[in-house]
Amino acid sequence: MKTNRKNIFLGILTALLAVVLSVFMYVDAKSGAVVPVLMYHSIHADEGTSLFVSPEVFAKQMEFLYKRHYNVVSPDKIIAYMTKKENMPIMTVAITADDGFYNFYKYGYPILKKYNMPAILFIITDKIGKPGRLGWDELREMSDSGLITVGCHTKSHPWLPTVSVDEKRLKEEIVVSKEILEKGLGKKVDYLCYPNGGFNDLIKDFAKKAGYKGGFTTNPDRSSAIDDIYAIRRLKMSSSSVDPLILWGKISRYYAWFKENR
Predict the structure, then answer these.
(1) Chain centroid to CA 39: how far?
(2) Which of 136-145, 205-214, 244-253 has the lowest mean pLDDT?
(3) Shared domain check, 103 and 134
(4) Do residue 3 and residue 119 come from a single domain?
(5) Which of 63, 133, 137, 170 could form a disulfide with 127 if both were Cys (CB 3.0 to 4.6 A apart)?
(6) φ, ψ for residue 225 (rounded to 5)?
């Protein structure tokens, strides 16, 4: 009797594992080379907003990636993987931070240097040097380190779909901001991040013509192809994403796929 129960249990367990494995294989086939891109904003103990991660939590999250040997990549690698010019290792992830808060330099950058992890920092050019924001000295230092890629987050952080009806304004936000960063840094700026994830086909075309290699959003609607390099999806990180199991699940390709297809 005990042997029969054991065999039944093992049979059920085997069947469940087969189902789980089949689901993972299906997601892999559907998602392709999709890089989980983590989205941060302010690294500060400010519980008044959901767009913050405390320095302690950020340190634990980066330590998690480091100790588990994640392949943390630059934006150029993201594009290479998404366009299938290179094969993407399974445990691959990218790190981004929006808005250019000074606390990224104070808290985030030292931790990234400690673990030798690259990241992408998206800057609002009208905010450079303002209180609580990064100045040119910090931006140049981080850019010259080789770890931090500085990208554009437009000139004034507007909702771009509304701006897109005014070509002159759209040029200010997408093209002029790029030129400001390139002049200040002395190097090309290749990546754009749409404020609040807002974009449309006109904005994407404008970004391509401006010379951007890719565009980052939040979680676009299903009309955007999952391998669209001008609609790169990202995952919002928070202080709640610190439990190892939760963090592992969130930065896997499966989380993004299930979230989009639920």
Answers:
(1) 5
(2) 244-253
(3) yes
(4) no
(5) 133
(6) -60, 145
Provide the whole-model pTM. Answer: 0.85
**Same domain? 26 vs 74:** no
Same domain, 115 and 23: no
Question: Do residue 205 and residue 85 come from a single domain?
Answer: yes
**17 and 44 both lie in a single domain:** no
| Chain mean pLDDT for the chain | 86
Question: How many domains are there within the chain?
Answer: 2
